[in-house]
Amino acid sequence: MVGNNGQLRKEPLKKEWKAWKKFKGKDIGLGWNPIKRTVDASNDWWESRLNVVPEAQKFRTLGIDPEFEWKLDQMFMGIVATVIKHGHLLQVHSVVNILRMLTTTCLKRMKKKM
């Protein structure tokens, strides 16, 4: 039962995170307004994104803080950084390096078997 309750609480959060990711799209380098707690972008950008994702209107007044977004990414993207170095989780770019290292290692093992 405890697991199900946790899952039930996690689903609305995952839904919000998915809407946020869809809303932001592939745009990088967006500003963050810590006072308004939302994306700092031109009205044209907002209008163009809201035409694509109308349900994201709520993010105009309250977005997902970049630090919290990073944590949600770790939770929901299927790649979870569980490697700890010097008492800290590795940064996202380090996780990518770990995946490259694992891929290289697996390829070397496959070549040896051939």
TrEMBL record:
Residues 9-47 form the Myb/SANT-like domain. It comes from the Eukaryota. Pfam families: Myb_DNA-bind_3. This is Myb/SANT-like domain-containing protein. It comes from Gossypium armourianum. The lineage of its organism: Eukaryota, Viridiplantae, Streptophyta, Embryophyta, Tracheophyta.
